[in-house]
Amino acid sequence: MSGQAPGGAVPILLVEDDEATRTALRRDLSARGFDVEEAADGRNALRRWEARRPALVLLDLGLPDMDGVVVLRRIRRDATTPVVILSARDAEAAKIEALESGADDYVTKPFSTGELQARIRAVLRRASGPAADAGGRIAVGALVMDPLAHRVTIRGEVVPLTPREFEILAVFLAHQGRLVTSGRLLRAVWGQAYQGEHHYVHVHVSKLRRKIAAADPAGELRDLVTAEPGVGYRVRAAETPPG
Ligand code: CA
Predict the structure, then answer these.
(1) Quick one: which of 24, 92, 11 has its CA closest to 52?
(2) What is the CA(23)–ligand 1 centre distance, in A?
(3) Structural domains in the chain plus CATH codes
(4) How far is the CA of 99 from the centre of ligand 1 (A)?
(5) What number of H helices and E strands is found in the chain?
(6) Between the N and C ends of the chain, which has fewer C-beta atoms within 10 Å?
């Protein structure tokens, strides 16, 4: 785990070749209590990442010397450090490739610092501790998944899920505060043979969400899983554990 700087500021590595964007981001994030280190290309990004092991990496995909995905894969070879992609609006395929290579989330340029900061806080919460209790149960608000009993309850009431819906929900709960692409969900739940059959995912996720909504009349879990059009699904971040 990365240590925090002496002042308590969270160390972030900002990888962006556009100097104006980089400077503005560093200024805004520093003002919000982050300790920002900058890199303008992939080679420097990897050098600084090795030297510093920051708590989080903000990564532009279009770098002058190498594809940002190469930087991401190198980081993922030996660390689970959260990585948030800074994506251009027309780079949909590259964004999905990055998410499937282990990026945690993305923001699309131009984005507000508030939006970026919300993403940063969410992925840092995800990285901050185990989501399951000693019995392997995962709680999100009023929803509890018990993988041993293969049962999901909301306020103690069993939600009647099919085995496939249960598996889908398990993938979502393992990705709190992150994006799950449709392709990743498809491979995890249906296997390689179903590559490209994204409508399966859509149909089953819709049924799962309807069952959760029916058992949650107060709507507390409404934003547990939200569709990210053309990409997949965004899973709500875990609550900060008490204590
Ligand atoms: Ca760029």
Answers:
(1) 11
(2) 13
(3) 6-127 (3.40.50.2300), 138-235 (1.10.10.10)
(4) 17
(5) 8, 12
(6) C
